[in-house]
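Query form — protein Peptidoglycan-binding protein

QUESTION: What is the three-dimensional structure of this chain?
INPUT:
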Amino acid sequence: MRKSLLVLLLWAHAVTATVPAPPKGIYPQSPRPLDSQTQQAIQRFLLHNRILDTPQLLDTAPYIVAAQAGRVLGASGERIYARGALDPVRRSYAIVRKGKVFTDPVSQELLGINLDDIGTACFVAAGDVTSLAVSRITQEIRAGDRLLDTHFSTDLSKMLVSAPAPGLAGTIIDVPRGVTQIGVLDTVILNRGKRDGLREGYLLAVTSTGAVLRDKISGTLLKTPDEYAGTLLVFRTYEKLSYGLVLRANRPLAVMDKFQSADPTQ
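ANSWER: The structure tokens for Peptidoglycan-binding protein are given below.
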């Protein structure tokens, strides 16, 4: 049974499918700005979500040693105490915790690390143990949580939506909200980034991979065609990962669906 399943999986990966063309009009004829609804969806997401390219960036960051009165539950205005290289000039710090580690589904290469948003804190007083005041909190602050610079701002009004050059392709590998079915204005994580040529503002077509099945009459294995399933916008790129926002979905999308650039004239 296991041998048969392995043969089936290998056969499915070996099948080369034709990339289906998206409907006409999906790609803009010239770069265009984001609409207000899309900007708002992206801004809400970026407030609480962030990726680091390597674990070393987190392992060497300043860290929380205690909360006020020795408690680990921080509340707005309460003091927390940290150690590490904190810059008094930088008044605000993001409190983060190591989250999911992303690897490429094929090569198993480490692509990045998701940071869980815990809150923000403002610098109060420097020392071997630095004091900070909690200004925003989303969940319990724990000893060992890390402090990083707050998000760099993105002027979404200057982001232009455009069609990338042909040849970009990859896989949706995760959904930050943990849903199984992905719809319009949901954010997804892509296993491609800056090094692969992805740029913020690119529109990509999503395809659902056809199912592998056995022809009951002939007994042979068949694969149904891949089908265009939706369109997503790349809005934040890291070295090896990117965030994409689903703008169109003909059907519920799912983790492991493929994305690619397609000829806008198709």
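ADDITIONAL NOTE: The radius of gyration is 22 Å.
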